[in-house]
Amino acid sequence: MNPSVQIFELHPLFEEVQLQKVFADGKTFVDCTPKISTGEILQLYLQQKDKAGFDLMAFVLQHFHLPKAFTADVVLQSASVEEHIHQLWNVLTRKPDEAGGSLIPLPNAYVVPGGRFGEVYYWDSYFTMLGLQASGRYEMIENMVKNFAHLIYTLSFIPNGNRTYYLGRSQPPFFSLMVQLLAAIKGKEILISYLPALQKEYTFWMYGREQLNRRNIAVNHVVMMSDGAVLNRYWDVFDTPRPESYREDVELAHAHTEPQQMYRHLRAGAASGWDYSCRWFADVNQFDTIHTTDIIPVDLNCLLYHLELTIAEAHELNFESTEAEHMRKAALQRKQAIQNYCWNKTLQFYTDFDFIKAEPTTVQSLAASFALYFEVATKEQAEAITASLTNEFLKDGGLITTLYTTGQQWDAPNGWAPLQWMSIIGLEHYGYHELAATIAKRWIKLNKDVFARTGKLMEKYNVVDTHLEAGGGEYEGQDGFGWTNGVLLALMKKYD
What is the pLDDT of residues 465-475, one digit of tens each? Predict the structure, then answer.
């Protein structure tokens, strides 16, 4: 047996630990580090498991080191939230040589979100970088951009996080925004330096495009629309339960006639970063109607529009006019396709598009704000979106994520730092400064109030009843917390 086999490949030990809920959080076991080779551990398990008095928990603790939790508990209560965050950067920093188990080593230090999330996460990191920029920690920003480029060069893409069990999927593609952020600090020549990585990232998202035709409209992340335009969806190469949420996935798919299809939709939902939201459900109140891979997400395609423009700009700086024009044309075509398929004329709002049903979805979410942030919307469309944000999404603590309360963590009443940022800056781009400032100040106040009560900054917040904690999802709310820290510092610098 291969001694380096992953924990989630240790059958039947892995299934037993997860299904018997040895750990309350399924992510704990796959983040453990074996004390001896996994092959030896499995042999010992097979020898001992049927003996009288066998204790599964004791066996696991005997043969595995538990993962380190990156918590804020070690930070002394500070006089201000700003000082608290400045201290947290050190707490949440992971050294490059800390590898083992399922962790994929990175060459440079990086900042993790916190709590159960002790590894780097793709889209989280951009919003963390905003705070690092506000803190003047430019070296860490560059370290993290270098790490993501390293992942692109070694794996051909940026995985959900630097764990082996995430190798089937990526996350919202914010790499081009990270490179632009670094370029704002160090100069535009940075775009040329990272052009090969940007191109390789684009190749990953567009892989399979040449296989698209009228009979084969979807391959991997790419989908051919009815008019021949190509847009993107979220995708995971595997159709098995997620190792880090094995029990939850098995239980949800138990009565499903096609469990592999369910697992694919669940994994694609995790790739979206919105795990989970009713925007992925056929019935907003039924988790088991999830059909993520049937959906063209408006936010994903706005991000890829930015990637295309960034590659074009890098080519121009590198005096490669033909290549630059090619990418600008691709970006223009994508922008028009987003307008054609994701602008919901009935709702006067950007929504996702169900390409299987050939119709827009009806769930209004803050994904629409990406069309403002990247200036895809017309002036008239921006006005309509702004009216909806003002009248339906704006609450005492900021913006709710969707208009539905479903028990999923990416729905009402929860608000999330990255979506506040994309919405606020998107509104600024269209001149809605007063509304942007109102949202920002309400979010800042909520973050500060919860910090005053608890001494912590949270992963997400209840923006409807600001005295209650946010809830929903597959795990308890986490504190730390990378993107909350980053967005809060950036907003305070801009508005407070």
Answer: 999 888 777 66
